[in-house]
Structures are given as structure tokens and as C-alpha cells.
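Hi Y.,

Following your request, here is the sequence exactly as I used it, all 128 residues.
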Amino acid sequence: PLPRSKALAPAKPPKRLLRAVGEAIRDFAMIQDGDRLLLGLSGGKDSLTLLHILLDLQRRAPVRFEVAAATVDPQAESFDPRGLSAYCRALGVRHHLLSEPVLETAQRVQPTSICAFCSRMRRGMLYG
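Below is the corresponding structure, written out as C-alpha cells. Let me know if you'd prefer a different format.
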């Protein structure tokens, strides 16, 4: 992991969330020693909460694992992901920012379902 900034300590998620996620990870053997996790980070409350839960578990879990984050920038005027890079850097989390004109491509292609098209585009960028 990257060194954490002294200015920002990870938030402490509620105990009930930590317990539920920890139990699910244990019960289904979701994280093994040496795993490298890549979290899709949109900047919404769900992905940010999961980031902080994973960072908390990383400090306390008996297994060692890495956490990184990836954000897909669809190059839409209403979405500016630059703050996420700085936020991750302050937490000591490696952040991958992938940028592609997804909405422009969707307008050109005119898919039947814009949501399905954007979802496939984002996954393709992450897997590529």
C-alpha cells in the first residue's frame, strides 16, 4: 500500500456493517492471504463505505491482502472523479482512473439499453 497522509485517517464504519461484511468474507472465504482487491469506486456512499470497511478489515484481519481502487470516468460533464484520486492518495490507497468517452460512444451507437451498454463498456475497460 501507499503511505497514508497524516491529514486523513480512514473513517470508522459502523460496527454492524463491519461485523456483517467480516462474517460474509469469512463464511464464503472471499479473501485469502495475499489477495489483491480492486474496488470499483464511483464516489457514491456505497463504494466509499466499502472502501473504508476493507481498509478497517485490512488492519485487523488475520490474512494479509492489498486494496486498490479503480474509477471509470465516462467523460460526462456532470462527473468529475479527480477528487477521488486525491482522497485515495490521502488514505494510502492506489487509485486507477480510467477515462473513456462512454456517453459519447453510446450516443453514436444508440444501444437499446443505455445502462447495459455503459455497464459493458466500464467492465471492458476494467478487464482490458
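The mean pLDDT is 89.

Thanks again,
Q.
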